[in-house]
Amino acid sequence: MRKIEIDIKDKDYLDFLSIAIEDQLSVEEKLKAIIRWHIITYRNRQKLNSQKIL
Q1: pLDDT the model gives residue 51
Q2: Is 5 left (phi over 0), alpha (psi -120 to 50) or beta?
Q3: Does residue 40 fall inside a structural domain?
Q4: Residue 9, helix vs strand vs coil
Q5: pTM score of the predicted model
Q6: Within 13 Å of residue 11, how many CA atoms lie on the same side as its CB?
Q7: Which of 22, 25, 37, 42 would give a disulfide with 29, using CB separation of 3.0 to 4.6 Å?
C-alpha cells in the first residue's frame, strides 16, 4: 500500500470536504473513489484500444 500526501490550499480542501460530505463520504473515501473511477476508465480504454488492434 502507498501513502500519498498532497499540499492544497485551505479553501480547496474545504470545498472538497463539502463535496465529500454531500456524498456522505470522508475526504479519504472520496479520493479513493475518484482514483478507482480513473483506474476503471483507464483499464476500459486500454481494453478498447487492444480490441481495435485485433
Answers
A1: 84
A2: beta
A3: yes
A4: coil
A5: 0.80
A6: 0
A7: 25
Residue showing cell 478507482: 36
The range of the structural domain enclosing residue 40 comes to: 25-54
What does the pLDDT read at residue 54? 66
Number of other CB atoms surrounding residue 32 within 10 Å: 12
pLDDT-derived band at 1 (thresholds 50, 70, 90) equals confident
The count of structural domains within the chain is 1
Q: Which tens digits make up the pLDDT trace of 5-50?
A: 999 999 999 999 999 999 999 999 999 999 999 999 999 999 998 8
Helix axis angle for 27-53 and 10-22, nearest 10°, is 80
Q: Which three cell numbers stand for residue 32?
A: 479513493
